[in-house]
Amino acid sequence: MSKLTLGSYPHMLGFEQLERLLERTAKTSEGYPPFNIEQTSDRSYRITLAVAGFAEGELSITVEERQLVIRGRQRDDGSERIFLHRGIAARQFQRSFVLADGVEVGEAVMENGLLHIDLTMSRPETVVQTIQIRKG
C-alpha cells in the first residue's frame, strides 16, 4: 500500500512545503513543557507554557521560517547542593509551533511560572486577478 501525499492530489498545487512542515512538527511534539493554546478573540490566540523554575533570561523566543520556537536552558548555579529527592525538572527544552501565513507574534509575558505568548492573525487581502487569454 502506498502512502498518499498532498502531491498525489492533482488539485493541490504547491502544497509540498505544507506537507514537510506537518512532518517536521509531528517529529518535535514532546510533552515538556506542557502548554495551552486558547483563542482570545476572533483573530487572536495565546500560547501558555508552564515554565516553573525558569527565569526570563533562561528563555528565548524566535520565529524561524514561519515556526515559533521557544527554548529554555537553566543555568547551573555552581553550588554543590545535595538533593534527597529531585522531582522538579531542570532540563533544557525546545517547543515549536508552525505559524500560518498572516499570524504575527506579539507580546510575551512571564507570570507566576507561566510564559504567555500572544498571536494575532491579520485579515488577508481579497485579491481577484483576471488572466487574459491570448490567441495562439
UniProtKB/TrEMBL annotation:
Domain of life: Bacteria
InterPro entries in the record: A-crystallin/Hsp20_dom, ACD_IbpA/B, HSP20-like_chaperone
The entry's keywords: Stress response
Location of the SHSP domain: 26-136
Residue ranges that the Swiss-Prot or TrEMBL entry lists as coiled coil: none
Keyword check for Signal: no
PANTHER family reported in the protein's UniProt record: PTHR47062, SMALL HEAT SHOCK PROTEIN IBPA
Family of the protein in this entry: Belongs to the small heat shock protein (HSP20) family.
Name of this chain's protein: Molecular chaperone IbpA, HSP20 family
Taxonomic lineage of the native organism: Bacteria, Pseudomonadati, Pseudomonadota, Alphaproteobacteria, Rhodobacterales
